[in-house]
Design brief:
Strand order of the largest sheet of chain A: 1-2-6-5-3-4
Structural class of chain B: mainly alpha
Strand content of chain B: under 5%
Structural class of chain A: alpha/beta
Low-confidence stretches of chain B: none
Shape of chain A: elongated
Shape of chain B: globular
Number of helices of chain B: 6
Largest interface: A-B, 35 and 33 residues
Radius of gyration of chain B: 19 Å
Number of helices of chain A: 7
Radius of gyration of chain A: 21 Å
Distance between the termini of chain B: 26 Å
Strand content of chain A: 5-15%
Distance between the termini of chain A: 65 Å
Helix content of chain A: 25-40%
Oligomer: heterodimer
Order of helices and strands of chain A: HHEEHEHEHEHEH
Number of strands of chain B: 2
Helix content of chain B: 55-70%
Largest sheet of chain A: 6 strands, mixed
Order of helices and strands of chain B: HHHHEEHH
Chain lengths: ~200, ~160
């Protein structure tokens, strides 16, 4: 009995050890693999200089716990938990209407997975799957570094990938915080407001 | 025992493959349970990478009939732990909202996308029974272990 138990435990340990070795090797070889040391769920933005962006004095903005200000042309609020700038639907729609994407000044970034992006994304949006940054960012980063307005979105609702990606762009890739906005309403709200989505991939 | 072993192996294999192909998506689902700490990130990231491979290698072990008792025991433990986590998460959603219990659906990280949780818990209960049966069964029918044990002494293989 003891021998059987010992053998079963050894088999379990052996299986787990093999899975660790094979899993790490496979993850390294997988183009979709994740980076073991990266925190994909960081939400605290501290720009270089060490001052928290959530500090209203340092950011030049007034933090607010209320929802959108009454002026729809300026519907940006500072998320005090994350330090990110949250944009309302009207701001996002205006950016899309007023500035041609080809200008390069305004860049939309879709933080969702491949399938969701292909099913429908904001017209002209770049695809940067937050969990596959190694695959998408090399091409996207030069465009983002030149942009004056970067609007990051995901599905909306409970989806936090847009916030995670926006944080990563600042903390891991050195982009300045000021041009970055998170469209929390996401694709859900965009569709609910009757706005068009584009299918497939952008040229 | 043969049917239980093969059925469990094939089902767990179908769960493992999509998670290995898309570790980022599985990482997101692991995080959504809020069981593992997010700092330092290595732990939750390692679980997202290694767990699907435990499922895949365990599945192959069951299908081929090698180290099957260890694999079945591991699956029994894992399936019980997964089911408990799913139930806790479901009760959290149920107590917070207006949904009936069996109307609740989410991606449980099982490799099948969003599923109705009542159905998932029942499926898992069945898999736990299969795994427990495979764990205690003494049958060695159609296993690599039994083929190895029957290897001919005349061919020069050691017999002990």
């Amino acid at each position: 009995m003891k021998k059987k138990l010992g053998r079963t435990c050894a088999e379990m340990l052996g299986l787990c050890a093999a899975a660790v070795v094979v899993g790490l090797v496979a993850n390294t070889l997988n183009a979709n693999g994740i980076s073991i040391g990266k925190n994909y769920f960081s939400l605290r933005v501290v720009p270089s200089g060490g001052t928290s962006a959530a500090d209203p004095e340092s950011s030049g903005r007034t933090g607010s716990e209320s929802p959108w200000p009454e002026d729809p042309e300026n519907c940006i609020r500072l998320d005090e938990e994350t330090g990110l700038q949250m944009a309302c639907f009207q701001f996002v729609a205006d950016q899309l209407d007023l500035l041609p994407y080809s200008d390069g000044f305004v860049v939309f970034v879709d933080a969702r997975d491949d399938e969701s992006y292909a099913e429908g994304h904001l017209p002209g949006a770049l695809h940067v799957d937050h969990y596959k940054q190694g695959r998408y960012l090399p091409d996207a980063l030069p465009l983002l570094q030149e942009a004056g307005v970067i609007i990051v979105y995901c599905s909306g609702g409970d989806c936090e990938d847009s916030k995670f990606l926006a944080t990563s762009l600042v903390m891991d890739h050195g982009l300045p915080l000021e041009p970055i906005y998170v469209y929390a309403g996401g694709v859900e709200e965009w569709k609910a407001k009757g706005k068009p989505l584009r299918e497939g991939v952008e040229p | 025992m043969l049917l239980a072993r093969l059925l469990l192996g094939v089902v767990m294999l179908t769960y493992a493959v999509p998670k290995i192909a898309e570790p980022g998506l599985f990482l997101k689902e692991v995080r959504n349970y809020h069981i593992l700490p997010e700092e330092p990130p290595q732990l939750v990231n390692l679980v997202a990478v290694v767990l699907p491979w435990i499922e895949l290698l365990g599945s192959l072990a069951l299908i081929l009939g090698v180290i099957r008792r260890g694999a079945a025991t591991l699956f029994t433990g894992l399936l019980i732990a997964f089911t408990v986590a799913i139930v806790i998460r479901t009760m959290g959603i149920y107590s917070a909202g207006d949904l009936a219990l069996c109307d609740i659906k989410f991606d449980c990280g099982c490799g099948k996308g969003e599923v109705y949780i009542c159905k998932k818990v029942l499926t898992n209960a069945g898999l736990i029974l299969l795994a427990a049966y495979a764990m205690i069964s003494r049958s060695t029918r159609l296993t690599l272990e039994s083929l190895w044990a029957k290897r001919p002494a005349a061919a020069g293989f050691p017999t002990s």
